[in-house]
Specification:
Helix content is 39%, strand content 19%. The chain is of the alpha/beta class. It has one domain: Molybdenum Cofactor Biosythetic Enzyme, Chain A.
Amino acid sequence: MDIKIGILTASDRASAGVYEDLSGQAIINTLNEYLKSSWREIYEVIPDDQENIENALIDMADNEGCCLIVTTGGTGPAKRDVTPEATESVCDKMMPGFGELMRQVSLKYVPTAILSRQTAGIRGKTLIVNLPGKPKSIRECLDAVFPAIPYCIDLLEGPYIECNEDVIKVFRPKK
């Protein structure tokens, strides 16, 4: 059975068709490189609206059964950037180390990374990770945090995720 992973893009303009959702596609492309396990995406592009984001996260976690949801967009300081608030609202536990590491990595490339508010949290048996909106930043951030994601999903009693070790080295403690 395929592992289900939610890909959620929060963007007023992409959801209105003003431009193509390159960020969501960047997540899918990266995961296709990382994962050896059979998986399928539950993919949605929605406006930057907290209630919409919350509803989409709840649906992907509770109804679709995604073990992982990766969001892009809505993590900046602008008034419409509410993805972290939506994530925090639907999660049982927050995982601030994800955001800390992503900002640390991004600061090597751009000084404005300090403006990013990406975070992560757990809803039931689902890990939710907020990524920035730029495709280049998405890869940089996923390269940094993904090594911990399969083990986190193990701890949440989710599916065993096997990765392509030539592309990404994941960490699991020795038994």
